Amino acid sequence: MDKQIFLNYLVVFVLPLLLGGGLRFFCYKFSKAWLITVAAMVLSVAAWFVAMNPPVLGSELYALRTVQAVCLTIGSLLTGLFVKIRKKTT
Predict the structure, then answer these.
(1) Can you tell me the distance from the alpha carbon of 71 to that of 22, in angstroms, rounded to the nearest whole number?
(2) What is the pLDDT of residues 23-53, one digit of tens each?
(3) What is the pTM of this model?
(4) DSSP assignment of 47-85, as one string?
C-alpha cells in the first residue's frame, strides 16, 4: 500500500476514532461524561446537513469531515458502552 493512502486512512478513520474513544475514556470518572458522546452526535448531525448541501459544489472536504465526525461519535459510543459494561461486572 502506498504511504499516502495509509496516511489518508489514518487521518480520516483511525485518528478520529481514537480521539473519540480517548476523550470519553479520560472523562469516564465524571458523572456527565455522556455529554461528550452527545456533543459528538450533534457534530455528526451538523456535518451531515452540511455535506448534503455543500457550500462549495464538487468539494470532497465536507464529506470527509462528516466521516471524521461519525468516526469520532462511534469511538465515543463504543468506549462509553465498554465502560458501562465494565462497571456492571465489577
Answers:
(1) 12
(2) 999 998 898 999 999 999 999 999 999 999 9
(3) 0.92
(4) HHHHHHS-SSTT-SHHHHHHHHHHHHHHHHHHHHHHHHH
